[in-house]
């Protein structure tokens, strides 16, 4: 069997580091390649061979938290794609007045802070 | 991670097929320097191709929160000459004076080009009217030094897309997802003119043969992968696909490199970049407080405790001329005394002792709550929120409820402090020094004919602006060269050899994966090229690396083109590691500036070793050389920065 005939596959692992909401993700069907896949520096997102489904996360431990995939998504603020930091990287903080401790990813989290960055969310992301 | 099953590979496999590309100028690497080089070369009317391992839309660092030193901006009141002299003294001469001068002279002009391409570089929406760091006329916002105004706060998240759009307008041919494996030379000979490159598509496995009259190398510097890779996530300040690939390729082609013996203390990143506050650059000059709310003071370079916030941003209050945090590593005689470089005491080695004595209580917090609204908004809302790479930090923190008006972010120490008491899990190590890179001249030409270079792959380069300004310069020079150069003839045997080497991991069924080899290389570097070295340690380390090259590197297996890319990166990482040890063996002296601590030559920077040690490969053998400090102001160059700039400037 020659190399070009060998069946090429990729292992898929369970991960929550990158999550797609299949009900919101529109697969970027207007493009040959979904925007998140195109933006990934580490190429650890793969266009789903079944184009009716969201992209696949391949090699999740190569993710470097750059967030380019979420940043590139026009439906990022609707959470079509989410980048969840690994547990060890879930940054912690303390409320100055109450002294209460918090972290990203905690159960029963406080309500989101809705304030956008200066000059608003990046134009790619629309609320 | 738990294995769920296999997916069919989404892309057509094209192992065995070759795509040939012909261009006047080939740019290798699409981060910051590369696109700028491509754009400027294309403006000269030549055919330009740019090849990038990721995709030009978001490759390279992808973010930028401060731009500079933009000494040519209309508000700046320090001269380029003075700035270069301060940097020079601070780094004891181990700088790239060519780059520092060119950047100082063209940084703001380059930022205006970015603005013309559609990027946001000033507060045109008047969100900071009245802020002490805002110039009301130009609406520019300044970082770090509100008096000298050498560095500009910017909305970096739009920079890459602006460059991408401009490359499309300039009809630059983009080859994305192609990992370049080698430089092609005339006659296939080492040390000869560079006339192209080979590469592999990281999705299809198709082989690429690029032919070009001139080549610009802009592949960056290594990330954390040499010393700090552990087989698990490889996040860090620099994108982990960076392994110094360009250095390895340039080395094999016979180019001269320098300062590869230099390294700096670095900790494995435990948190997303800039997500915990860092008083050294992006978060400068934020307050750091202890568990009881007690503020930890900033101290100046010469040890003076700063008593007011204003002293962090107005150098004259400290009797100094300039503040440039994180830029100047050592105090030196001469004009370095002009520089205040305040840093939070929590970053100093003596802080550990103060914690043990109970003077400060852990943990620490980055506290923006009692800073001015302008500072809070500039640091968190602009520099974190709109930088690009840290957009996700802003997004995830605010979604989780963090509010900088009320909350204090836990602070764990930054990459350079070691942070021993701040975080017991800190994995302290080293990273390639800022100084390490390819030797270039005033044209940003390497020692090889036809090969130009810009960005972090050249010696003494750092920051977005320096990559951009050098990239532009190199792009024009390469285009001009290509107009006069003869049409290259590719040596087919060289291409065939590269093809065989590149695809070897796809031919094997059983063997080892790249992670095993990468972890092995890191283990050798940490053991034999760590805090302290001597000839014996270095030689043993080199022996083990050479053995890895002969044995395990020949056993790499790649199941698909993606794994092949990581395998080829790791092979280049092995070459870079060998070069680093060869370089250290050739500097028989310690050097504080280069962080080289030798147990067999303990004197720090003795006069006879105060020079650049260079290294290259000739007939497969390592040949060391040297260049004097300030070689760029010595024959064949003119004696002053200004004269050289005027003689070589491309515009």
How would you characterize the overall build of this protein?
The complex is a heterodimer of chains A (127) and B (651). Chain A is mainly beta and 127 residues long. Chain A has helices at 35-39, 68-71, and strands spanning 9-14, 18-20, 45-46, 56-57, 81-83, 92-95, 101-103. Chain A has a domain at 18-103: 2-Layer Sandwich (Alpha-Beta Plaits). Chain B is of the alpha+beta class and 651 residues long. Among the domains of chain B are: 66-153 and 305-341, no CATH class; 269-300 and 342-426, no CATH class; 502-626, Up-down Bundle (Methane Monooxygenase Hydroxylase, Chain G, domain 1). In chain B, the strands form six sheets. In chain B, strands 2, 3, 7, 8, 9, 10 and 20 form a seven-stranded mixed β-sheet that branches. In chain B, β2, α1 and β3 (48-52) form a beta-alpha-beta unit. The interface between A and B is large, with 68 and 85 residues. β1 of chain A pairs antiparallel with β1 (2-8) of chain B, so a sheet runs across the interface.
Q: Which fold does the CATH topology of the domain at 18-103 in chain A refer to? A: Alpha-Beta Plaits
Low-confidence segments of chain B, given as residue ranges, are none
The stretches of 5 or more residues of chain A where confidence is low (pLDDT under 50) are none
Average pLDDT number of chain A: 91
Count, helices of chain B: 15
Number of strands of chain B: 22
- Estimated structural class of chain A: mainly beta
Compute the separation of the termini of chain A in Å. Answer: 52 Å
- Strand numbers in spatial order across the main sheet of chain A: 2-5
Strand content of chain B: 15-25%
Report the count of strand segments of chain A.
Answer: 7
Number of helices of chain A: 2
């Amino acid at each position: 069997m020659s190399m070009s005939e060998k069946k090429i596959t990729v292992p898929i692992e369970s991960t929550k580091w990158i999550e797609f909401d299949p009900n919101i993700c529109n697969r970027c069907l207007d493009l040959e390649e979904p925007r998140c896949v195109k933006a990934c520096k580490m190429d650890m997102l793969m266009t789903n061979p079944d184009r009716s489904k969201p992209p696949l996360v391949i090699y999740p431990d190569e993710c470097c938290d750059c967030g380019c995939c979420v940043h590139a998504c026009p439906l990022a603020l609707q959470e079509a794609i989410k980048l969840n930091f690994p547990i060890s990287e879930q940054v912690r903080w303390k409320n100055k007045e109450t002294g209460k401790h918090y972290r990203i990813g905690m159960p029963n989290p406080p309500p989101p802070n809705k304030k956008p960055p200066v000059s608003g969310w990046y134009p790619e992301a629309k609320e | 991670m738990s294995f769920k099953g296999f997916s069919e590979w989404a892309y057509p496999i094209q192992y065995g097929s070759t795509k040939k590309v012909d261009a006047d100028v080939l740019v290798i690497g699409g981060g910051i320097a590369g696109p700028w080089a491509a754009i400027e070369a294309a403006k000269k009317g030549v055919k330009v191709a740019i090849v990038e391992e990721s995709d030009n839309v978001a490759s390279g660092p992808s973010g930028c929160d401060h731009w500079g030193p933009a000494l040519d901006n209309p508000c700046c009141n320090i001269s380029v000459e003075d700035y270069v002299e301060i940097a020079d003294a601070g780094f004891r001469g181990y700088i790239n004076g060519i780059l520092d001068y060119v950047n100082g002279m063209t940084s703001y002009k380059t930022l205006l080009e970015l603005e013309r391409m559609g990027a946001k570089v000033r507060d045109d929406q008047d969100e900071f009217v009245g802020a002490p760091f805002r110039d009301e006329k130009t609406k520019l916002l300044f970082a770090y030094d509100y008096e000298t105004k050498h560095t500009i706060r910017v909305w970096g998240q739009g920079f890459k897309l602006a460059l991408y759009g401009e490359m499309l307008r300039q009809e630059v041919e983009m080859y994305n997802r192609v990992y370049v494996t080698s430089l092609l030379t005339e006659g296939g000979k080492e040390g000869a003119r560079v006339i192209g490159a080979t590469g592999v598509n990281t999705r299809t496995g198709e082989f690429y043969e690029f032919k070009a009259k001139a080549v610009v190398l802009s592949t960056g510097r290594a990330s954390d992968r040499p010393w700090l890779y552990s087989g698990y996530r490889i996040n860090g300040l620099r994108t982990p696909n960076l392994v110094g690939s360009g250095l390895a390729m340039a080395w094999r082609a016979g180019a001269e490199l320098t300062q590869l013996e230099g390294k700096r203390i670095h900790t494995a990143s435990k948190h997303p970049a800039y997500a915990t506050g860092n008083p050294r650059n992006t978060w400068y000059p934020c307050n750091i407080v202890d568990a009881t709310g007690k503020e930890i003071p900033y101290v100046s370079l010469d040890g003076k405790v700063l008593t007011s916030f204003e002293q962090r941003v107005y150098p004259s209050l400290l009797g100094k001329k300039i503040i440039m945090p994180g830029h100047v590593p050592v105090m030196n005689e001469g004009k370095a005394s002009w520089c205040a470089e305040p840093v939070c005491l929590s970053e100093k080695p003596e802080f550990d002792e103060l914690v043990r004595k109970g003077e400060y209580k852990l943990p620490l917090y980055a506290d923006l709550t009692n800073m001015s609204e302008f500072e809070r908004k500039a640091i968190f809302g602009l520099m974190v929120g709109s930088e690009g790479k840290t957009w996700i930090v802003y997004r995830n923190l605010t979604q989780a409820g963090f509010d900088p008006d009320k909350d204090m972010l836990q602070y764990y120490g930054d990459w350079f402090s070691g942070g021993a008491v701040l975080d017991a899990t800190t994995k302290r190590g080293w990273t390639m020094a800022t100084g390490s890179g390819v030797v270039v001249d005033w044209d940003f030409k390497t020692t090889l004919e036809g090969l130009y270079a810009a960005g972090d792959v050249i010696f003494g380069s750092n920051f977005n602006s320096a990559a951009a300004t050098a990239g532009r310069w190199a792009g024009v020079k390469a285009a001009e060269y290509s107009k006069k150069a003869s049409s290259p003839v590719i040596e087919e045997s060289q291409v065939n050899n590269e093809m065989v080497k590149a695809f070897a991991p796809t031919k094997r069924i059983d063997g080892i994966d790249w992670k095993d080899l990468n972890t092995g290389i890191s283990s050798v570097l940490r053991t034999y090229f760590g805090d302290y070295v001597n000839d014996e340690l270095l030689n043993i380390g080199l022996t083990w690396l050479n053995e890895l090259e002969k044995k395990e590197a020949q056993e790499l297996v790649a199941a698909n083109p993606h794994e092949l890319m990581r395998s080829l990166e790791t092979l280049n990482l092995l070459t870079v590691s060998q070069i680093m040890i060869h370089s250290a063996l050739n500097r028989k002296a310690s050097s504080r500036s280069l962080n080289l601590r030798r147990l067999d030559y303990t004197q720090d920077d003795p006069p006879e070793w105060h020079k650049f040690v260079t290294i290259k490969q000739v007939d497969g053998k390592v040949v060391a050389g040297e260049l004097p400090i300030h070689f760029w102001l010595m024959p064949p160059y003119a004696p002053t920065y200004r004269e050289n700039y005027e003689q070589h400037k491309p515009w």
